[in-house]
Design goal:
Blueprint lengths: L84 H28 L10 E6 L5 H8 L5 E3 L8 H7 L5 H16 L19 H15 L4 H4 L2 H15 L10 E7 L3 H10 L4 E6 L2 H18 L11 H12 L10 E5 H6 L1 H12 L11 E2 L2 E2 L1 E4 L2 E4 L15 H10 L1 H6 L11 H13 L3 H20 L3 H5 L1 H24 L10
Parallel strand pairs: 1-3, 1-4, 2-3, 4-5
Antiparallel strand pairs: 6-7, 8-9
């Protein structure tokens, strides 16, 4: 007899209160789920989501013989001798856990047969507008029985990985991707790291590789042309992850929610090509808080976290303004399938926000959508000497410690339409276009507070370091570099303000 483990994530869908004490201990109890409804699997000819010139999937739940249970499942891995460091890491990880995984395959096979992996065509992805709660949003989906979401940024590099390793088979991709995500994204993308400073979301490698082996046993006989499709990797990655968590399907075709994280029009188009009904969720924030926080993050990345300060002159003040000015409209041409989720609403009105979002995504609202978890474990946030889980009203307050009064007025003036349409408070005298134009002109002439801080850091940390290393040409170029960046900032402010004033840039619609 094959025994299947029950879904044991700790954030089961059950009644919860809006106001609840912060408790970072795992919760217990059984997950509440809808009764399973037998779905009618359409014939290939009836699949409206199919695209011409593409191999059609076999929607049969099992394409291979169940006799595989009587013998070891061996996935053909051809990269074990590769000089590629990522593939070497993947081969080591797989070899290390292969024997333990083999013991788990029968249970995983019985579990994953109930998923219709090739038929999973509902997909959404999350992007951020600065530091605006994208991981928090994903954590609210974690316990829903009709959703599979990979935690933190473990899914962020799925599409770049497929582009870089096109020659690998589907099964090799599934084995190699955790290593790729670990190397490219660090702690936030590490499938297996325990303990992980970016969150308690590690899965057991043996359980993951056993799930991959089970999927190979189920679908390994399907045509290679079908299995090599990019969407297959995305679908099977989510099912393998669910299998690693021993999560049985209530719906054999759950919604997949991933993290594109950074706005990238090319990746967004690839996503739509694979999943024509794909939707995009963008977390946003009060623009004053967004600029304040994103400036701080860029300064940390470019000065504190980057040891090679003499490699080139940095201007995080410009980079942070450029990012937020170019991301507030979302992906080009995708407004109808895009919704913005306010950071403040996730902290102050989580139930109303998640109800609206569930309706838009076409999934039933569940009380567990108020629980902030990663793989069923509380998503613990630490900042300012405090720790909390889930909504924190203090986080919803406007912050501006890195912006002076003129900087804030500049943001109000340039992003006036964002404040109005996203329902954030702003000075009413800025409703007049002429007043906003005067402020933009003033900002062009007077550098922002963070530009002055940027100038000091360039001189103290980079130009001075170049002098100490006798790189005189580099040191003497510092004033020219700062003038050029200042001119670029003026051009950025001018073009951004003009585009918004003429209505050429449209902010995303809030859910």
């Amino acid at each position: 007899m094959i025994v299947v483990s029950h879904f044991s994530r700790n954030n089961q869908c059950s009644a919860s209160q809006n106001s609840r004490p912060i408790d970072i201990q795992p919760k217990t109890g059984n997950r509440e789920a809808e009764p399973y409804r037998e779905l009618t699997v359409p014939a290939v000819a009836e699949d409206n989501g199919a695209r011409p010139d593409e191999a059609q999937p076999s929607l049969s739940p099992v394409s291979g013989s169940l006799q595989v249970l009587a013998q070891p499942v061996r996935i053909p891995i051809g990269f074990d001798k590769s000089p590629d460091e990522i593939l070497q890491l993947a081969a080591r990880q797989y070899r290390e856990h292969q024997d333990a995984a083999r013991v788990l395959v029968p249970a995983k096979l019985a579990l994953l047969r109930d998923y219709d992996a090739p038929g999973m065509d509902r997909a959404a992805t999350i992007c951020h507008w600065g530091r605006s709660g994208s991981v928090l949003l994903a954590s609210y989906f974690d316990g829903h029985e009709d959703i599979i979401t990979l935690p933190n940024q473990t899914s962020e590099y799925a599409y770049p990985f497929c582009g870089e390793y096109q020659s690998l088979s589907l099964w090799e991709k599934l084995v190699a991707y955790p290593a790729y995500s670990q190397v490219r994204k660090g702690n936030a993308g590490d499938f297996f790291l325990k303990p992980n400073p970016d969150g308690d979301f590690a899965i057991d490698p043996a359980h993951y590789f056993a799930s991959v082996q089970a999927l190979f046993a189920i679908y390994g006989d399907n045509p290679e042309l079908d299995l090599g499709a990019r969407r297959r990797f995305f679908q099977f990655l989510h099912v393998a992850y669910a299998g690693a968590l021993d999560r049985p399907p209530v719906n054999p075709r759950p919604l997949m929610i991933s993290a594109q994280h950074w706005i990238n029009n090319e990746l967004a188009q690839d996503f739509i090509d694979d999943f024509p009904g794909a939707r995009f969720l963008h977390t946003i924030r009060d623009p004053i808080s967004a600029f304040d926080s994103w400036l701080e993050r860029h300064f940390t990345w470019q000065f504190r976290d980057n040891p090679d300060l003499a490699a080139g002159y940095r201007y995080p003040a410009f980079d942070s303004f450029r990012d937020l000015f170019s991301w507030d409209a979302g992906h080009g041409g995708l407004h109808a399938r895009t919704r913005a989720i306010r950071f403040e609403d996730m902290h102050l009105e989580p139930e109303q926000t998640m109800r609206r979002l569930a309706e838009w995504l076409g999934v039933p609202y569940r009380p567990c959508m108020l629980d902030s978890t990663l793989n069923g474990r509380p998503y613990v946030v630490e900042a300012g000497g405090r720790r909390w889980v889930g909504p924190n009203p203090d986080n919803a307050r406007r912050r501006s410690k890195n912006l002076n009064a003129l900087d804030q007025l500049m943001v109000f003036a340039v992003l006036h339409r964002n404040f109005a349409e996203w329902n954030y408070p702003y000075p009413r005298f800025l409703r007049h276009r002429s007043t906003r134009a005067v402020l933009v002109l003033t900002g062009m002439l007077i550098p922002t507070k963070m530009e002055w801080v940027n100038i000091k850091n360039v001189i103290r940390l980079q130009a001075a370091a170049a002098l100490r290393k006798r790189r005189f040409a580099t040191a003497l170029f510092a004033p020219c570099a700062l003038v050029l960046r200042r001119l670029r900032m003026i051009q950025l402010l001018t073009s951004t303000a003009a585009a918004r004033s003429l209505g050429k840039t449209r902010p995303m619609r809030v859910i």
